[in-house]
Design goal:
Structural class: alpha/beta
GO biological process, one term: carbohydrate metabolic process
CATH architecture of the largest domain: Alpha-Beta Barrel
Helix content: 40-55%
Protein name: Transaldolase family protein
Order of helices and strands: EHEHHEHEHEHEHHEHEHHHEHEEHEHEEH
Number of domains: 2
CATH superfamily of the largest domain: Aldolase class I
Pfam family, one: CBS
Keywords: CBS domain, Schiff base
Radius of gyration: 35 Å
Shape: rod-shaped
CATH topology of the largest domain: TIM Barrel
Organism: Xanthocytophaga agilis
C-alpha cells in the first residue's frame, strides 16, 4: 500500500520526506489557506522539488477549465511524471480525467462518496479513486463499506486504478485501510509519526538497552568523580562534610596507612546520634567498629554490580582499582541508567 503524507506544512513535509520511503505528498487549497500560504503557485513549485510525487488540485467548472488549470501548473516547471492532478468527481471532472490521461498525465478523482462515482472515475482511467473516509463518517455514512466496495470493484475488473483512503482522522483508519486492502493511503503527519508507537515495543526496547549496558558497560563508566573518604583520626563532622559535598550517603573510612577499613553511612550517623547526641560530631572515626566493606573493581561489568546490590540489599558499594579506593557506586547511579 502506497503511503502519502497529507499536509501543507513545509516543516512537516521536509521532516516526513526524510523517512525516505513515502510515496509522495497530497495537499489541498484548504491546507494551504490554513498554513497562511499566499502564493500557491510558488508553494507548489517548491513542494515539487522536495517530494517524489506531488498530488495537487486542478480546478474548474468545466472539463476545459480543469485541463487548462492542469496545463498552467505544469507550465510552472512541474514534472508530469511526478505530478498527479486531483479532480473532484463530476461529469465534467471525469471528462477532464479522460482527456488528461490521454495526454499521459496522472489523475486522482477525489471527493468520491458513492460506488457509482468510483465506477465513473475508474472507467475514465483515473490513476487514483479517492474516498474521504473521515468526512463521510462525520456525515453518518458508512465509509468503510464504500471503500471495500471500491477495492472489490477495481480488483474484480482488473483496473490499474488505486483506491486511496483519505481524510484519515485516527490510527484506526490506517488499520482499516490495511484490512480493506486499499492500494494507497494519505495520512497527516501528527498521525503518521505515532504509527510505530506501542507501549510493549517501548518496554522491550528499554529492556534491550538495559541488558546491553549491563553486559558491556563497566563500573568506571558511571561512577561519580567524587570520592568521599575520611581517616581514623578525622572527626564525624569531617565525614558529614564529605557526604554533603559528594552527594553520597556514605564515606570510605581509611586506615592511617591508606588501606580501606570500612564504610560509614548516613544510617550509621543517625544511629550514633541517637546514642551520643550532639557530642557525636567531635568524636573521632576511630571510636566506631567497622564491618568488612563491600567492594567492586572499577573494571567490573555493571551486571556484577547489580548482582551485589540485589544479593546484599545495600545502597552503596566502594569502588577500587589496584586495591586503591577510587570512588563509590550508589544504587541511584544504576537508576540513572535505567538499570534497576
Amino acid at each position: 500500500m502506497e503511503l502519502y503524507l497529507d499536509s501543507a506544512d513545509l516543516k512537516e513535509i521536509e521532516t516526513g520526506m526524510k523517512l525516505g520511503f513515502l510515496t509522495g505528498l497530497t495537499t489541498t487549497p484548504t491546507f494551504m489557506h490554513r498554513e497562511g500560504v499566499t502564493d500557491v503557485d510558488a508553494m507548489i513549485v517548491n513542494l515539487s522539488k522536495i517530494v517524489p510525487v506531488l498530488q495537487i488540485e486542478a480546478l474548474g467548472s468545466t472539463a476545459d477549465e480543469i485541463i487548462k488549470d492542469a496545463e498552467r501548473q505544469l507550465a510552472l516547471g512541474l514534472d508530469p511524471a511526478k505530478t498527479v492532478f486531483k479532480i473532484p468527481v463530476s461529469l465534467e471532472g471525469v471528462k477532464a480525467c479522460k482527456a488528461l490521461r490521454d495526454r499521459g498525465m496522472m489523475v486522482n478523482v477525489h471527493l468520491v462518496y458513492t460506488i457509482q462515482q468510483a465506477y465513473m472515475a475508474m472507467t475514465a482511467g483515473a490513476n487514483y479513486v479517492c474516498v474521504l473516509a473521515g468526512r463521510m463518517q462525520d456525515q453518518g455514512y458508512d465509509a468503510l463499506k464504500l471503500i471495500r466496495e471500491c477495492v472489490d470493484m477495481i480488483n474484480y475488473y482488473g483496473s490499474d486504478a488505486k483506491v486511496m483512503f483519505s481524510s484519515v482522522r485516527n490510527t484506526e483508519h490506517v488499520r482499516n485501510a490495511i484490512e480493506l486492502g486499499c492500494h494507497t493511503i494519505t495520512v497527516p503527519w501528527k498521525l503518521m509519526k505515532i504509527l510505530t508507537d506501542n507501549n510493549f515495543t517501548t518496554v522491550g526496547t528499554q529492556q534491550f538497552f538495559e541488558h546491553t549496558r549491563l553486559v558491556t558497560m563497566r563500573v568506571r563508566d558511571i561512577i561519580s568523580d567524587k570520592n568521599p573518604v575520611v581517616k581514623l583520626h578525622d572527626e564525624v563532622l569531617d565525614a558529614v562534610v564529605q557526604m554533603t559535598q559528594s552527594g553520597f550517603g556514605a564515606v570510605s573510612v581509611m586506615k592511617e596507612d591508606g588501606r580501606l577499613l570500612g564504610i560509614f553511612t548516613d544510617g550509621d550517623l543517625r544511629r550514633q546520634l541517637a546514642s551520643n547526641g550532639k557530642n557525636l560530631m567531635s568524636q573521632k572515626m576511630s571510636a566506631f567498629e567497622y564491618k568488612t566493606p563491600t567492594t567492586i573493581p572499577a573494571d567490573a561489568l555493571l551486571n556484577e554490580a547489580l548482582a551485589i546490590f540485589k544479593e546484599k540489599q545495600i545502597d552503596t558499594i566502594i569502588v577500587t582499582d589496584n586495591d586503591q579506593v577510587v570512588g563509590m557506586l550508589d544504587i541511584q547511579d544504576m537508576a540513572k541508567w535505567d538499570l534497576i
